[in-house]
Design goal:
- Pfam families: ACPS (PF01648).
- It is a single chain.
- With about 250 residues, the protein is an alpha+beta fold.
- It has one domain (about 25-240): Ribosomal Protein L22, Chain A, CATH 3.90.470.20.
- It is built from 4 helices and 10 strands.
- The strands form 3 sheets. Strands 4-5-1-10 form a 4-stranded mixed β-sheet. Strands 6-9-8-7 form a 4-stranded antiparallel β-sheet, covered by helices on one side.
- A hairpin with a 4-residue loop joins strand 4 and strand 5 (about 125-130).
- Helix 1 runs antiparallel to helix 2.
- The longest helix has 22 residues, at about 60-80.
- The protein binds coenzyme A.
- Coenzyme A binds near residues 105, 180, 183, 184 and 187.
- Coenzyme A binds near residues 70, 184, 186 and 187.
Length: about 250
């Protein structure tokens, strides 16, 4: 998989440019396919108590598998990056709004290592960057195919019957990646935002850092993914990896 700044033709105009963008922002992203991951049940011991509680609470088997595969992948990746065993990593998820453990993940002891996670039932991803806060999102293209999607997700100026499922999904992942990089998630109404333009810095939220979003090409036409860095870069280079099937 390679990085590309290509803009799907049917995605509407970007959020306004923020400040001058310069330099190259770098990030790495690891993808795994839970449907191909057979060995996760034997590896649950690497998860921390919070992750095991959340896993136990997920009754739908494909959702539980995706959760486990994502968090095991995150521990493998972060363990390699910082040089320690996956089960020794301490992850803090304090929510900035309420203090509960459901916010963006941070690796304790490594404040300059930015991390983001995403999961669907059949594709999960982990992104890391030491350059700037990072956000990643992946979605099933077919997941946008429901009555009312445009009202929930698309800015009024972008709603059009001419948009296809892929364009809607691309818009969604770019917004979600940007809002994850900013650490807010969907406390911000996605329909209040226009779609960030891939490869361009934009001011997604007026009172926050500018964000640079890029599409992440996948070897799979059923999903789309985007990655964002919360900084004004002239270019974002992503190195992508596919986790070996386990
Ligand atoms: C972040 C968010 C957009 C992700 O939504 P999603 O499409 O269901 O899930 P994804 O699989 O793409 O991403 C989930 C991951 O995002 C991360 N995440 C959670 N909150 C985050 C935030 N504010 N910023 C960045 N990342 C966040 C977590 O690592 C989470 O993984 P986990 O649940 O498996 O541990 C959504 O959970 C959200 O909007 N959260 C904020 C809501 C909030 O703050 N409410 C106020 C509570 S007091």
């Amino acid at each position: 998989m390679r990085h590309s700044g290509a803009v799907p033709p049917s995605v509407p105009p970007p959020a306004p440019d923020a400040s001058p963008a310069s330099g190259v922002g770098r990030a790495e992203a690891w993808f795994a396919w839970p449907t191909r991951s057979a060995g996760w049940e034997q590896r649950q011991g690497s998860l921390d108590a919070h992750e095991r509680r959340r896993l136990d609470a997920l009754v739908e088997p494909t959702t539980a598998r995706a959760y486990a595969v994502l968090h095991l992948l995150a521990r493998d990746v972060l363990g390699q990056v910082v040089g320690c065993r996956p089960d020794q990593l301490v992850v803090d998820r304090t929510c900035a709004r309420c203090g509960e453990q459901h916010g963006p993940p941070r690796l304790v002891g490594h404040p300059d290592l930015h991390v983001s996670l995403t999961r669907t039932t059949d594709l999960v991803a982990v992104a890391v960057s030491t350059d700037a806060p990072v956000g990643i999102d992946a979605e099933r293209v077919a997941g946008t195919r429901f009555e009312g999607f445009d009202g929930v997700a698309m800015h009024p100026s972008e709603r059009s019957p001419d948009l296809d499922d892929r364009a809607r999904a691309v818009s969604w992942v770019r917004k979600e990646a940007a809002l994850k990089a900013l650490g807010t998630g969907f406390v911000v109404d996605p329909a209040a935002l226009t779609t960030p333009l891939a490869g361009r810095t934009g001011l997604v939220l007026p009172d926050r850092s500018p964000v640079t979003v890029v599409d992440v090409p996948l070897g799979d036409s059923d999903h789309v993914a985007a990655l964002a860095l919360a900084a004004a870069y002239g270019r974002v280079d992503i190195t992508t990896h596919e986790a070996p099937d386990a």
